Amino acid sequence: MLLQAAAPIAIQLRRHLTCTVLGRPIYYEQVGTGPRRVLLLPGALGSCATDFQPQLKGLNRDKYTVVCWDPPGYGHSRPPERDWSEKGGEFLHSDAEHALSLMKQLGLAPFAAVGWSDGGNTAMLTTLLGRPVNCGPAGVVRLQLLHVKRTEAIRDLSKWSDRMRGPFEAVYGPDRFRSLWEEWCKAYLGYPNGGDICSQRLAEIRVPTLVVHGAGDPVVDPVHHKFLHSNIAGSRLVVWQDAKHNLHLRHPDRFNKLLEEFLDE
Q1: Rounded to whole angstroms, how far apart are CA atoms 126 and 238?
Q2: Cα separation of 212 and 192, whole Å?
Q3: In the chain, which stretches have pLDDT less than 50?
Q4: Which stretches within the chain are classed as H helix?
């Protein structure tokens, strides 16, 4: 009886792990035992703790094996600190290489890439990088090419609410978060190729793609989700009129249902 009772409990365990990927320590969390593999990719300075808690807790663990990571130099994937000069300043491209390598190393490729905010860029790049080895499909929740003016608009942390700053300050401490955010803004504004991450390669994305946008998003110009939808063949666009930038955190049940329906198609 004890063994029978323990079995369903074991399935619910959430694993907090660290491994070495391309010479860097990478922290990740893994839940579920399902046949469909999913990688959750956090946004700028984001981590498992700040960006995807409702998904780690709420996605069906019998259907999915879900991995979320702290990108190199973020969250618990430190030290070492983030090197913004990686790949000639293309730090998001470096993240994509690490993300793909992590999932292959874990034996979880192919997989669906689910990215929010800056993680949408990483999801897109990971999909492009993984094409030769069949690493799709990519359920890309949010692909964002931030406009310079919008980056400047969110640069001043004094304009952030305590609710927005709080999770990041809990991870980094107030002083380190402030300095790291300034580093990110400078690196993003100075991204090579005029800040064009991969808009010219969107036609190469040939996997099922879901783009989700909150109509009240103050961070991302509406032109972005329209451009992505128009240039990624066969993509599906969902716009929530009552949502903003962090719609998966503010409306987790609704979002998780949408994501699961997409993953199950």
Answers
A1: 22
A2: 26
A3: 1-11, 132-149
A4: 2-11, 48-51, 53-58, 91-105, 118-130, 148-153, 162-172, 174-189, 223-231, 247-250, 252-263
As a whole number of angstroms, the distance between CA 192 and CA 8 comes to 49
Among 94, 117, 213, 224, the one annotated catalytic: 117
Q: What is the pLDDT of residues 131-157, one digit of tens each?
A: 644 444 444 433 333 333 467 778 999
217 is catalytic: yes
Sign of CA dihedral 206, 228, 40, 70: positive
List the domains of the chain with CATH numbers: 13-263 (3.40.50.1820)
Q: What is the pLDDT of residues 32-64, one digit of tens each?
A: 999 999 999 999 999 999 999 999 999 999 999
pTM: 0.90
225 tagged catalytic: no
Token pair in block for residue 95: 């993240």
Cα separation, 112 vs 79, whole angstroms: 28
Given 213, 245, 248, 251, which residue is catalytic? 245
Cα atoms in the Cβ-side hemisphere of radius 13 Å centred on 137: 14
